[in-house]
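User: Can you model how FE2/S2 (inorganic) cluster sits in this protein?
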Amino acid sequence: MNEALLFHPVARDDGLGELPIAAHLMAHDLVLWRDASGAVHAAADRCPHRGAALSLGRVRGDTLECAYHGWRFDARGQCVAVPALPAFVPPASHKACAYSARVAYGLIWVALTAQPESTVPAFAAEHDARLRKLLCGPYEVATGAPRLIENFLDMSHFAFVHEGLLGDRAHASVEPHTIEFTADGFIATGCKAWQPQSTLQATDGAMIDYTYEVGSPYSCVLTKRAETAPDTEREAIAIFVCPLAPERSRVWIRLALIDREASDASLRDFQDTIFRQDQPVLESQRPRLLPITADAPVTELHSAADRSSAAYRRCLRERGITFGVC
Ligand code: FES
Ligand code: FE
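Assistant: Here's the modeled complex, given as structure tokens:
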């Protein structure tokens, strides 16, 4: 698998208006632009004429106009006008490097190819009308994307990093849970954690039942409910990570919640609090690249409580993922 050919989140959809914007993905500079019909497009942020940043340009109808000499490019990257030569018909070789763009979950997703091999990662709860959707982040983190996904899967840090909210030292044990490998990754079920305050609105501690699903290298979806609550009260949280560089990531959290009462700001505050607890630990981990290969400079120790993390590492290895790992 070439992870560059998969879709990754790069920007909030509502952050792209009439002007093009710059974005970054896997050490590539991108321009994002929205045509007159509202469709979103992505390309390398470099004009093929003299190398100016296309993100400095502007949108003209269904084309992106370079700020330097006004060359215009369509959604496929084809140059369609050279203003200094009005009669000139640009040949097929006059092309900017166009990528594939999609909009999902309030985010713009880009694959660094004109012919993507897959779609954006699945997040079934997004389509559940009972659940309220909210996007949190972005959080800028000085570590590789796989470290963030592994942390999201890790239940044994709750009692220490999130003590008083998602965990409690007196209930630090992690029960055995089930891992089932799928075509795209794995699902972990039967994951239980005692949580003093599992959500913004929770007033009592409760045993929370989690499932985790990994279906792409840099995203993960969890669903959770109090063990005593019916399955209809299951909420979902997705982490979508943009691998900016091997050791630098941008993170969004997509919530699909039952809660209709709390304000957006208070829900975001709660999520920000949780993330700020994780961040210093994440940025302290060395190496920042997840060590999964036989040549990794270090070996890390594993316990039986790290089953999900072990499954994740196995999936990355089997898929031949190289970005963000060592
Ligand atoms: Fe873009 Fe000349 S550099 S039109
Ligand atoms: Fe955490």
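A couple of observations from the model: The chain has a mean pLDDT of 96. Residues 151, 157, 161-162, 278 surround fe (iii) ion (ligand 2) (CB under 6 Å).
User: Helpful, thanks.
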